[in-house]
Structures are given as structure tokens and as C-alpha cells.
Amino acid sequence: MSLKNFQLYRPHPWHGINIGKDAPQIIKAYIEIIPNDVIKYEICKESGYIKVDRPQKFSSLPSFLYGLIPETYSAETTAAFSKIAKIGDGDPLDICVLSELPITRADIIMDVRVIGGIRLIDSNEVDDKIVAVLNGDPFYEGINDISQINPVIIDRMRHYFLSYKSIPGESIKTQIESIYDANEAYSVISAGMTDYDNHFRK
């Protein structure tokens, strides 16, 4: 096969990967962090490669796969769902993915099934965390809404996001406005796709 049939450059995980034809129910997720990572990794927006953002400062570590949803953006349309904050955080929508079997590397893409979300407010900006399960995982077969997940799993997510930026002696920067179901998560993702189109395709 001729080399010309391949892309010359690696696709940017945010801008070069399609969210998926079955969005917003089943979407592509790009994973930046795996459970218990002691380093906070995130995508370099300029190059599309994983970069070290910072060491995790304290003992609060993620218990789930964490990454971003391609072709989404948190801006005006996304922020309109919040009753507290007025603006989005200016990043792609974040996603938390549950998988029964351990996935031990990041910088990967996967098909996930959206089941709900957490509306996090971070420094007065909307910072939604979409919650999903690995599509095709037999352990989560039949799970289509966050209400079907063991509450302990959601409590661990809540604890992580309420504590991962907290510094002793300083005011807490994050608060959880709401935990929402799959239907609202679909609407948030659709809004994120609209914001992406408005900011990057026009």
C-alpha cells in the first residue's frame, strides 16, 4: 500500500477525531489519565500530545479513566445549563469512563456509552464532567443511566472533584451544582458540539 494512503500527521485528539456517528449517546473518548495516576496529565492544545500538567498535590487520586470528548467545547451554550456560573471553562468537555477490567495506559481512544454527568463549578466557570461506561463491557451491559450505578462510585467521583485542587488553608475552588441523568448529559454534549462549531468551524 502506498504511503500516500496514510495521514501525513497524527490526528489531533481534540480536533482530528470525530466524536462518532451515534453521538451524543455513544461517543469517542480520548483518555488522558488512568485510575490512581499520581501525575496530572492533559492534552497539549497546540500539538495534541499528552503533557505533564502537574503532580497530583495531595492524596486524592482519580478512581476512573479521565479524558476529553473530541469536537466539543465548553462555552456559552454549555454554560446556559448552569444556574450558578455564566461561562464555560474554555476547554473540551471532560469525561469520566468506567471499565470493569483495568486499562493501564492513557493516550488512547475508546467508544463509550454516556450515562449521566456531574456539573462542576470551578473558579466560577462551568466544568461539566460527563460520565460514561466502556461500550461493549459486559459488566455494564444494560446500564444506561447514572441512577443504575452503585452510589459509592459516584461518591468517589464527587470526592475527587471537590478535593483535587484543594490546598489546606485556602478556600475551596470547586463545588458540585448537580448530578444529572443520561438525557441531560446528551443535551450537554449536544451543546458542547454547538459551542465547538461556533468557535472552531465558523
> Rg from C-alpha positions?
17 Å
Distance between the termini: 36 Å
Strands side by side in the biggest sheet: 1-4-6-9-7
Tally of discrete structural domains: 1
Topology as H/E string?
EEEEHEEEEEHEH
Biggest beta sheet summary: 5 strands, mixed, barrel
Shape: globular
Number of strands: 10
What features would you describe in this structure?
The chain has one domain (11-200): Inorganic pyrophosphatase (Inorganic Pyrophosphatase), CATH 3.90.80. A hairpin with a 2-residue loop joins strand 7 and strand 8. The protein is built from three helices and ten strands. It starts with 25 loop residues before the first strand and ends with a helix. The protein has helices at residues 76-79, 151-163, 182-200, and strands spanning 26-33, 39-43, 50-55, 65-68, 87-88, 94-98, 108-122, 125-126, 129-134, 174-180. The mean pLDDT is 92. The strands form two sheets. A five-stranded mixed β-barrel has the order 1-4-6-9-7. A two-stranded antiparallel sheet has the order 2-3. With 202 residues, it is of the alpha+beta class. It is globular.
